[in-house]
Fold each of these.
Amino acid sequence: MNTVTKEPTTQQTHKKINFMEAIVQAEIEELQRDERVIIMGEDLAVYGGSALFNAADKSRLRSLPISENSFSGLAVGAAMTGLRPIVDLTIASFMYLASDQIINQAGKLHYMTGGQMKVPVVFRCSMWHGSAIAAQHSDRPYPMFMNAPGLKILAPSTPAEMKGLLKSAVRDDDPVVIFEDNALWPVKELVPTDLDFLIPIGKADIKKTGSDVTLVAISGCRLEAMKAAEALEDEGISVEVIDPRTLVPLDKETIINSVAKTGRLVIVDSANRTCNAAAEIAAIVAEEAFESLKKPIQRLSTPDVHIPFSPALETQLYPSKASIMAAVKKIL
Amino acid sequence: MPLTKDQQLETYRRMQRIRQFEEAATRLYETGKIPGACHTSIGQEGAIVGACMALRDNDYITGTHRSHGHPIGKGAKLNALMAELMGKATGICKGRGGSMHLADSSVGILGESAIVGGGIPLATGAALSAQVRGTDQVGLTFFGDGASNQGTFHESINMAAIWKLPVIFFCENNGYAITTSVADSHGQPDIAKRAEGYGIPGVIVDGQDVSAVYKVTAEAVARARAGQGPTLIEAKTYRLVEHQVGLNTQGDPYRSPEEVDHHIKHRDPLTLYKTVLLKAGISEAALSQIEADVAASVTEAIAYAEESPFPAAETVYDYMYSNPINYPPQYSA
């Protein structure tokens, strides 16, 4: 296997781990680095979290009663008074319960107190779409939180990004919300083991360079976008794939520079279509780089419909390799 | 331990500071010098100051939209508070908060939340922080009778009870959530009884009796510092004024003029405490001197606020985010 030959050169500095392991590794490293870090979550021991219990004193690992709004508020209060909590809200649809404390307190208090308060708290949640668990467990609500100023919004798409961005979030002095796509959980890759491996918040990553079309893929959409880009490459179409990694603050420059080169933009976003992240990116490019565009911007999103239980209904809803390839070809 | 004579005078001074500051704020609001909404705690000074006198400077407080009394009761200086009410650059929140959000971190105020019940989890979280960091600080959250029907009240008390957090849940029960009476919004009238359902002590105290409030709060604080967990205190108090300066309610009054008049005449916490102090042998002259000193401080605060500049328009984005983290050089590109 080709990959085996590559690993010996990196095994001193990297380890091959999956997305979930990257989360646990980041949390353990930050717990051990900084005693102000605490972890608060529902059912902490589930999904690999049990490894955390060897990493820190029990007082810094709080398994929570099911009170999303208030435990999020407890984390905000703890953040304002010397701790750096990581809150695991598990499923992204539960963010609505927590949203009052996240939006009205965490996001606003630095501003509303004229800078007297800092709120270094991290909220994590996993977006469980494509899993036949129906509408109340399948939301991808990051666009709503993008519309709430004061929060930093992250959407990593690889294990290394997850680790590096989570560690950056813990060290950031502002409230950070991380939306994690469960489609990424099985993905394994070599991830740096450097304890200070950080990915800067607010920087996009070009996953593949190309010259004909810019493809911006958010979070788990990277998987289908890369498949589509590779298939298009085989057909002689050169696609540049950009992973924003951070949605707020958005790295506009990387996207606009790419569009200046390609003249074409397709945005893939698994959130519902109306006012989603793709809509914001499209608006920015239309406002700031309209003269670069050779063809209309294309948006691929989940339509404005509830996620149904039956896979027979659900599977068709999300952007796929085929729909992405079709969108690219439409504007060539 | 009862308040010393000096502490009694300080208690009276703080009650006077709240009263005179808010009477001035009312006038300034009515003449258009203070924009937005203005809710005063006139009548609730005994509950506020009694609670604050039981706290140290480094303890934490969260409050409510009725936010002037809490920082003043905790000992805040008046100039920056009055400047904030007028929306000035020198305001305690740089003109970003206003009357409903007079948070002054120098006296331990984390935030004054205009989302009813919003501050309850914050103080509980500050108590969690104190517990994790191993300090003996406590959190105290002021909230009203209306907030006791929010989920945050129940959820936060439950978590504080589970972990024996050093937090005091302090309800200023003034009888009305704007116009909705406790009788119309609570299954039974005593909010403190809800404590039993969560396995923590619940105490009812006369909120117009500042000494009594101090005593029960000091006991709750001592329990909290000793690792014995939270207490719910319900101070039965009364707004001597309208919910909000200039509020015009329609239809039948939600509280009778006789009821309000009775409280103004017989249940004003400042009058009651003055009587206590005079009986204790403190001279009329000493109290008059405090009143005059406070009046001078309020006059100075108004002048300071009026002379202060408004924030420059281009500063509107300031304080949206803290400075970003310092990335190690290899990752900062």
Note: The first strand of chain B starts at residue 60 and ends at 64.
Amino acid sequence: MENYLEYIDAYFQRMLDPEEIKRFEQKITEDKEFADEVAFYLSAKQSLKAEADREKKEWFRELLAQQRPLIDINQYRSAKRIWIYRVSAAAAVIVCAFFAWYFFFANNPATPQQMADNYVNENFKNLPVTMSAELDSTQTGLRLYNEGKYDSALSLFEMISQRDSRNDLLKKYLGIVYLRLGSYDKALQHFQAFEHDNLYYNPSVFYQALTLLKRNLPGDKQKAKELLQQVVNNDLDEKETAQQWLKKW
Amino acid sequence: MNLFNKPTLATDEREIIDSITQDGTERKKGEERLFNRYAYFIKEAIYKYSLPEEDAFDLYSDTIISAIEKIASGSFQGRSSLKTWIYSIFHNKYVDLLRKKTTNKNSIHQTLSISDLLLEISDHSKSIVQKLVDKTDWEILRERLVQVGESCRQMLLLWADGYSDKDIAGLMEYKTSDVVKTTRLRCLEKLKQLYRNT
């Protein structure tokens, strides 16, 4: 069988002149073997495109998971499948938690500062890193952060930030690292910087409240309360957490 | 394409479009920025259209994939802002989804239609090729793609995704685009042999 792939490729890459195009299309009608080759070329390209799109979607999932660390969309399907077990488990946990709360904490509610500490320990211990093998400075910074090398992560994020000042996620990461390092003023600056950005998950206002609670200067607690109220009233990200904190205030 | 002088585009929108029309690495950065830029549309789809989260994600992903293709091929004219344009694609895909749901085709994933590529061929020859394409066993073809080897697979995927031989040379560290073309056609031939020998 003759190899027509180069000829077919030239046709679809629009590299043939009008006369050759005419001959090409004529050949489809006259030569079954050639028509088969054209059909294979098109089928292969379409099948490959579908595969490329599938891979791109997986990459998009990783990007989205980076924007929203608390809920991993990758787990959505499997979570859906086993929801009934989780609901049962959650119910058991809720019952246990209620009794634990009743016996241990009912007469000794957590202070806003304690709630802030717990939040930081639970949510900022690790930041999501994509599984991509590709070398990426932001990913390297996140890995350093997760290894507890906050100073190194900070230097790298600052360096990237100078090159790419519009990177909204980086503003968030910088704020988190400064918060972990106890540089609350700097953390506040970075959290304020993405307040009006259109991120899928934008907890800017909540993070500002969190930072104020950690800083705990005169007036910070009141200001943090106002910000939490703003999160609830404006239906912003982390609304449920803000509601819980306000209830315990 | 002189869309960068259009006043409708904000600076960061121009930067994204510029990145996507560049070569491999820069294009990937642009794709990432584009996806992140309007990812909040997913929330809108959940709240406004009452879609499950997974469907909303698919809807937005399909929108961005389609937008990337159009930007890379120069079809985006910049007559409106990038956001408005992306939203119109997003909305049209939502309407398609509704239509598919009402006709019991419960998936928004693209079917293996080759209509776009067939547009290149004159009507006279089109029906012949279409009939032959309809006989394709898509599942077998997909399985054979795994067997061509990782390097071939990567190259063919980049080609199908609209990367030029020059872009692929840069991304996969080949010396010239001519070498890529020869290798790519050899990979395609290998895929064909694997598929035909099934």
Note: Residues 70-80 of chain A have pLDDT under 50 and may be disordered.
Amino acid sequence: MQFTVDQNQLAQALSMVIRLVQQQNTMAVLGGVQLTASDSGLDVQTTDLFSVMTVKVRAHVIEPGTIVLPAATFNDLIHRLPTATVDVQVDPHSGKAVLKYGRNRATIHGFGNDQLPEFPTFGEGVVSVTLPAGTLTSFARQIIFACSKEESRPILKGIHIELGSGKVVLVSTDGSRLSHAWAALPDYRGPEMRLVLPAKILAEASRLDSSGQPIVVTFRDGFVQFATQDTMLTSRVLDGDYPDYQRVIPQDYQVQIRVPTADLRGSVERAHLIASKDRSNAVKFNHQIGLLQMTASAAEVGQAQEILECDSQGSEMEIMFNSTFIIDALKSFSGEEVMIEFSGVQSPARIRDAANSQYFHILLPLRQLV
Amino acid sequence: MELLPIIHADADAFFAACHMAEDSSLRSRPIAVAGDPGTRHGIILAANYPARSYGIRTTMRVGEARHRCPGLITIAPQRELYTAYSRRLREIFDQWTPLVEPLSIDEAWLDLTPQMDRWHGDSVKAGQALQASILSHLGITVSLGISINKMLAKQVSDWNKPGGLTILPKDDISQRLWPRPIIELFGCGPSTARRLASWNIETIGDLAKTPISALTSLGIQGERLKTRAQGTDYSPVVPPRITDRQSISVERTLPYNLAPDALTDQSWQPLITELLIRRTSTGLDGRTLVAKYRTSDFTTHTRQITTSQSIHTAAQILTLLHQILARTPITQPVRLIGLGLTDLRLPTTEQMTFWQNV
């Protein structure tokens, strides 16, 4: 096996795939990156058994073949090469790869004849949609943070994806807050589909946006694939039933508040400095027409009081939230103003970017116990 | 008349008494509460007075007890039963005064100061009524010590067991308390007693008369013991507040030593259940889980992990436990395992959730 490849392109490909490589593995070969040279170029692949990522790199292939090299070492070395191209030659008997760059060379021991486990390939009869570049990046920013981080509720570590006529809806929740985002798919007329994808896979898939190309998403029983021209990420989906999220989204709101995003964020972040000294991170929101007051206190630390003028309608209300929920939601907004809507002191509230109706967050309040 | 407002109440042979209260046919027969010898708990935990007349004592091995009293009836301990009686005992104490400080499952101090008018200043009458009420409601007897402060009351409550009532007025201290051996002083353990004996302090009176300067090597404990011996320790009777509780813990000696890989989730399950029940009953919020295990060489190991969430489900505990054990795996056979929640606080708020069981 022998090929010559552009150093920069190979380094970029390795940066994409290296994140699937786990530090500790039950199978040693999973710590490796698989290089496959063929007439169509060089395939760079890694897997963690749950998902697999392949990046195609243009290469001058002199002799086809496959080898698995230790991912971290190979990645570090390629990133540090001083030359524009590198020549890689593998001796099939010794399983060693010799890298030649300029007058210098390095030898890396591979995993012998071991190869990465095969992943099922996608055949015909599957459903696929094309997302404009940037769609997944927006989704990732808008909803990943609301996923559960707890091992005890594995299904909530995933993103619920609903493909329906003309649109795709993504939902995440940790049981106390919920994020909801959608994008139009005007050309999609295929079947309705529901599945739960690990949040980590959505984060990885959003990195495919860096190519600036549309991403083709293909669904098949138990698997999802994200592909651009050069890069392909295939993942299993999570097993289990996602909770019935529709009914926790309120239909009516008693209070509507419109306030500048940056002002609100500043106020809540200052209140959070005090609130975070207490376990509950509690910030009390007091609404009177035209005024939003936020207070926080922690025993032996102090109090904070913030008052914002706002554009509001509805009843006066006092309601308490975990300050990190509010801050996380505000960080996801890019618009100038934010809309907050309360449906009751012990009922879910909605918070959204006033300029973007394609996503919103539902937050449950804290209940006062004593 | 001198007021003696403090009562120390101590149930007589409490564990055994609970069983006798449940089954009166046991009253006249020698009974002992003892763990099952097959599970290494083969030790007498409590014996009733008929059994004690055979010389059976707490901590004696079951085998020896049987030898002394072939007709001995042994009963496996029933924690829930004792807890239930303890709670009912406490309910009766509460009717006498709001100032009740439990000392253990079957002992408590009562400060009758706010109630002295009701008893016309006579705490002995109050004590007798208390004993009668407990006997008629629960069918168990308590012995009382009545004095001017907590420590003196505790000091004398076991002088006339069972069912006794001992009064120690201030003027009697030198005559009745001081001749007693130092080991009887509340808070003085065997090793302290040995040290004191080496300084020729043999009785409580010896200690009371020893200048504090001679006790400096005992530190703060020396001062405390001397005050008690003098009868001048006026620590108040303080009802426990729920927030004073620092931790909840449960543990279990295994029927036989378990190799590390034989220690499964199933082994921990009963402890998890018990811990969660205890947590619920206190209403406290804990975020640090402590796992404890004692290996076959009798070394006790404790490991802990803290999370951002209140720990209140079995699944959470199991996940945290797995994390603890993955970090520091158990390498030797284990004879005891335990779980605890620490850093407990009374929560002021609760995060609402969309679904109960997701």
Note: Residues 18 and 198 of chain B are 42 Å apart (CA to CA).
Amino acid sequence: MLVLASVFGILLTLVTGAWPALKTFGFKFLVSKEWNPVTGQFGALAPLYGTVITSVIALLVGVPVSFGIALVITELAPRWLKRPIGVAIELLAAIPSIIYGMWGLFVFAPAFAAHLQPWLTDHLGSWPILGLLFQGPPMGIGMLTAGLVLAIMIIPFMAAVMRDVFETVPESLRESAYAIGCTTWEVVWRVVLPYTRVGVVGGVMLGLGRALGETMAVTFVIGNAHDIHASLFMAGNTISSTLANEFTEAVTPLYTSSLLALGLVLFVLTLIVLILARLMLTKMRAREGLRT
Amino acid sequence: MNLYARRKTVNAVALTLSILATAFGLFWLCWLLWTLVGSGLKWIHPRLFIESTPPPGTNGGLANAIMGSIILTAAGVGIGAPAGILAGTYLAEFGRTSRLGGVVRFVNDILLSAPSIIVGVFVYALVVLRAGHFSGWAGAVALALIVLPVVVRTTENMMRLVPDSLREAAAALGAPSWKVTIRVVYRSALPGIMTGILLAMARVSGETAPLLFTALNNQFWSTDMSRPFPNLPAVIFQFAMSPYEDWQHLAWAGALLITVTILGINIVARVLLRRSRP
């Protein structure tokens, strides 16, 4: 019962707390990028944009890599290597996010600014449209860095989920495919993946949910600026990092209320992602039941 | 022949790419751990455990923060775990097929994946605003809310693993259902439940976001839970973001300490689980 009470409590508190801000700004709260505590203007667009962009980057990088890891664990690695890699990945998923954040700030960001960023600007910066993403000063911290650190963070998590779903494929299916002469890749792409598609997507969604709500790792490296830039090198902000940075400093009731409204937006966002993921996993389980 | 060659090439390319991806992923993670050990180990020092956090420019340790974290985690687990075990018991024993059970299960999943900072905001509105100041109790409540869903989930799973025939045998001997649950099911599910609690403990001992605006932080030795409370993650956050080098060194040492603790708890939990399942 306590569980029920606490979730509804969270929702209720967020809604009532956010009410003044939502009433004052209405729908404009979601589409305005103004964020000015001095004049009392608040809009959620910049943090919302930052949240979405960093999560998208994290997924773009994280999904292929974790797919590769899961593939290696389930199909390629010899038996004696499977367990150590699997355990290592599960342990890495347990490292607190603040550690990732610190590492991102002190080690990754400087290295990134010194080596990768100039290269990206030189080679991709001159492309039409896409090039806009990679222009700007190589500061190290910014949206791209935040996205990459997030990717590194969710890789162990997603790889563990994918490995688990890959292992649900019946051995006989796999063996029949090999028996008619499929290559390993064909087995994975044509047999394992279609069989587990829904589960893999569900796992990715869970990873996305984690990336959306992640606070500490992002706060360290994103730069915390209420701006929207085309370039991924510029500092930005996410909902959670805004909350972490400004919550204790909010002086006016409207300020606090706007931050609560931001929290509400984030909660609803993760809720949607979670429900989608759950629906897919249930669907897959139902289909599995039909087959056996 | 051409077809075979193409299929072989595609296979080789794809497999190489996935091995590269694994190497790529593991490379970052190894780099991270290596840095952590490299820059943390240097600053591990006996002083760390006996002195409180210093002002910039002087020597000091993290004793108050370490102690604070231990107390906060214990309080959070102390509040969250019993509630979690009870809710899990309900789900596994009594609400297995009921509609309410399904709702609780779903809501528990929401709580499980809710961003921890939202939990912090909630507790801020609930406790801190009411009380008018930050306090250790608020931090403990926030941590308890994170412990709760983890324990609910593992308790339910573990109790479901207990075979029904065992329950039926006990019931056939005339045991009332509360006795079946306590004397039979708990006894065989105990190692699993302990594992769940340990994992939850590992998770909250590194949580930072919900503590930032509930327990806040405290520079001094404090065991008064109704005041702002010192804790390791918040100290790491504050010190790492600061421009002072000696503070940053302390942050690294603290980060190493937390990571080692959490990995240690995780490994203990794993061993415990494996031993219980022959």
Note: Chain A touches chain B through 72 residues (CB under 8 Å).
